[in-house]
Amino acid sequence: MWKTFNSALTTAIKAQNNLLPVNGLLYQQARTTFVLKRKHPAQLHKAGCSPKKFRNKHYIYELVKDTNIELQPDIDVILTSVVEGLGNTGDTVSVRPTIAYQKLLLPGLAVYANPENREKYKDIAETTTEVKYSTPSAAYTVKTLSRVLISVVMNKDVPWTLKPWHVKASFRKCGYAVPEYAIELPATPIVGPNMELENKEFAVTVTINKQEKVNVRCRIHHWSTDPIDRLPFIPNFWDNPSEPIIPEQKSVLDTIPPKVARNKSQ
Amino acid sequence: MASKVLRTFGKFQHATCLEKGPAALLPESYKKFYREWKLTTPTAVHYTPEDGRWKRNEVTGEVSPVQNIPIPVFFPKESDDQLWGGEGVVQGFQQRSHLSRRVPHFWIPMLKRSVVYSEVLDKYISVVVTDRALRLINAHYGFDHYILKTPACDLQSLLAVSLKRKILQDLQNGCPSYAERPDKQKDVLDQYKKYLDAYTPEEIEWYGYSLAQAVSKFKVQQEKEKEESTVPFKQIFRAQLIEKLKAASLDESNNQMKELEEGNSATSWLSKINPFSKKQET
């Protein structure tokens, strides 16, 4: 009797202090821990009395589940600033709980996507003054392209004028799929073959997703089908200093960071 | 006394730790917190409670009552300055095969150091936590909501309940940590002030202390009150003396004033005298 009364009191105390509904979050969250079960269930006791004294066998437990090694579901967060590789300000993204907590919520780059925050940050995307990237990975692409040096290989024997498709092919050789309409060449035409242009630099503007613009450093290299006519091989040609083909582009080229080898020990 | 008999249905009850010793003098608001913290059955963490009141044995069809007897858990003293989210240490045995002898085993929560951010205090706190604590924080959408929504029996650690008191006190004082940013201050207050409704100011003052801390706090308070109420005899006598001196000096000055008046009115007094009048009869 006393026991039932006590348990009722317990529920009352909990209900009073707990502003959550009884079937709320707290009661679903009995996880991330060892959940055990008695191998020999405890003896039944009379209603209203305290449980019977445990015997040694009642302390033998079996593991039902260890929730530390269970896969936890992703959690939703609203970004309050641009996060490279994830999204723009105001985007609701679903990420792994550890990443969300350590990389986004603690540094203040995001907030929990609860109903109040959804309402509060409803129009943050329109009011923000931060840059908006076309896709989450666009920022990475801009960074990568501004770091590379493209060798534009042109014919040494047949006359040519540099066209976007030449640059497109050079990009493809380096592993970048760039469409022709995204490449903007300098206004001054580059005509060859001209050995004065050999190993000299120019900059092309690449437009990513018709939005982000990035200047990419390129170098002209002459190449012949006849092995005798070919220029001697220069190892690590990107380490050698070079001059701009078009003097007006010098300022642009100076702003692009020089190519840095990833594995080079400084 | 009669009410206690009614409450316990006439059954003899041993005095609890709140009814005897120095704790018996503590205010009711602390006792309320202590009951919520230590004398309430916490949420089932290390076992799965069965639903319903009765269950039927599948094989025999026998009906028996459902009695969820909790698995004994203990909380080492280290857990008092960490956040375990209701987890504890389970001491017991494993029987690895039915032929072998049972082996003692401790099921200990996995601990790691992490950071929690309290929006009300505007502070990052480096603490040792369990995965369950972090998950509960995420499930409640923030550390403050978790601490404020969860009853003390489920918070368990002294650190958590004392943080709860600090947060509640800050909310009471209108978030002084955001004094320079009034907009943010108003935002935070609007978000969290609903939690203040569950407590009176005295309950907040006495929330989140261990029994020993509460007793020493109470002692300090009592001594302070006593000091304030008792006045040393030295001060009383000094005051009396000053009163007396003041009265004496007043009398003296009054006398002097009279004399002066008398001196001034000597001519009028002389003029009033008629030496030829008859002697006044009394």
Question: Would you mind describing this structure in some detail?
Answer:
- The complex is a heterodimer of chains A (266) and B (282).
- With 266 residues, chain A is α+β, with helices and mostly antiparallel strands.
- Chain A folds into 3 domains: 29-70, no CATH class; 75-127, Ribosomal protein L9, N-terminal domain (Ribosomal Protein L9, domain 1); 138-255, Ribosomal protein L9, C-terminal domain (Ribosomal Protein L9, domain 2, Roll), CATH 3.10.430.
- Helix content of chain A is 24%, strand content 21%.
- Chain A has 8 helices and 11 strands.
- In chain A, the strands form 4 sheets. Chain A has a 4-stranded mixed β-sheet.
- In chain A, strand 10 and strand 11 form a beta hairpin.
- Chain A is elongated, with a radius of gyration of 33 Å.
- Residues 19-32 of chain A have low confidence and may be disordered.
- Chain B has a domain at 15-41 and 72-216.
- A two-stranded antiparallel ribbon of chain B has the order 1-2.
- In chain B, strand 3 (90-94) and strand 4 (103-107) form a beta hairpin.
- In chain B, helix 3 packs across helix 4 (143-149).
- The mean pLDDT of chain B is 90.
- At the A-B interface, helix 1, helix 2, strand 1 and helix 3 of A face strand 3, strand 5, helix 3 and helix 5 of B.
Question: Could you write a compact summary of the structure shown?
Answer:
With 266 residues, chain A is α+β, with helices and mostly antiparallel strands.
Question: Which key phrases capture this entry?
Answer:
heterodimer; A: about 270 residues; alpha+beta; Ribosomal Protein L9, domain 1; Ribosomal Protein L9, domain 2; 3 domains; three-stranded antiparallel β-sheet; 8 helices; about 25% helix; B: about 280 residues; two-stranded antiparallel ribbon; 6 strands; elongated; ribosomal protein (chain B); ribonucleoprotein (chain B); structural constituent of ribosome (chain B); Ribosomal_bL28 (chain B); Ribosomal_bL28/bL31-like_sf (chain B)
